[in-house]
Amino acid sequence: MESEKDKWINEILDSGAELKMLKAPGGLLDAINHALQERQEEKLIPFSQLRLPMIAAAALIIINVAILFSADGWVEPKKPEAYKIESYNLNIY
Q: pLDDT of 9-23, one tens digit each?
């Protein structure tokens, strides 16, 4: 006598008897492997594409440094001497 569990297992196994193994169309796996290899390969950016951004960055840095040196705020202003010796009233002493 089969238990309920054994009947259930047998029904599930019998239901899968009509299933067929699926196969990928020819060349699909090769195409996937080729696409994965292309992603993993190191891609270098040619210098000709980096030349213009590098020139622009260098120009911005030079302009910013020039502005800092030419601005009045870059050099500390001279502090006025608050207490000069002449400002003391030495006649009191």
A: 888 888 877 777 777
The token duo for 89 is 């009233």
> For the residues of 11-27, what is the DSSP string, one character each?
HHHHHGGG-----PPTT
Q: Residue 74's closest CA among 65, 87, 62, 83?
A: 65
For residues 23-53, one letter each, b for 16 or more C-beta atoms within 10 angstroms of the residue's C-beta and e for the rest, the string is: eeeeeeeeeeeeeeeeeeeeeeeeeeeeeee
pLDDT given at position 9: 84
Tokens 């210098």 map to which residue? 47
